[in-house]
Amino acid sequence: MGTIFRFHTDVDTDQIIASQYLLFPTVDEMKAHAFESLDPDFASKVQPGDFVVADENFGCGSSREQAPAVLKALGVRAVVAKSFARIFYRNSINIGLPVIVCKDLYDHVKDGDQMELSLSEGIARVNGQEFVCTKLPPYMQSILDQGGLIASLNQEEEATWE
User: Fold this and answer.
1) Which residues are 4's β-sheet partners?
2) CA dist., res. 128 & res. 61, Å (int)
3) What is the arithmetic mean of pLDDT over 79-96?
4) pLDDT for 20-57, tens place per residue?
5) Were 24 and a residue from 4, 29, 105, 141 both cysteine, which residue would form a disulfide, CB within 3.0 to 4.6 Å?
6) Alpha carbons 123 and 135: distance in angstroms, whole number
7) Are 102 and 82 spatial neighbours (Cβ–Cβ below 8 Å)?
8) Residues 136 and 143 sit within 8 Å (Cβ to Cβ)
């Protein structure tokens, strides 16, 4: 169970983490500025296991990998949206941040609602309702469980050399 932080349509990567913070040497230093232009208190309010829920085209704009990385570093369990920009989706899988398409959820929730999400079932439960979401195939769940595509490939490479 986690708290929903609800955002609008076309949230771009500059709204997730503004370009001036990309000069910081680590994601840990950047994460305090996540969503600063939309919700200045987001980084201090979000807790590990919470969710970002958005309308369509989440993560549009530049291809910066730091956008999903700051959300993961803050402990966001998953981003659930009606649709994603392709590069944000891919960058999220690469680093192990679940990104789930759920067409009906956004219109039935508000900021602060409590949600339960089953990645394996593809079900979001909130406000006494169940919403059908993208059900992750076992291979993708395995990639996420290993910390993302890069970590998964590194583990496969290590196993090959043993």
Assistant:
1) 51
2) 35
3) 94
4) 999 999 999 999 999 999 999 999 999 999 999 999 99
5) 29
6) 8
7) yes
8) no
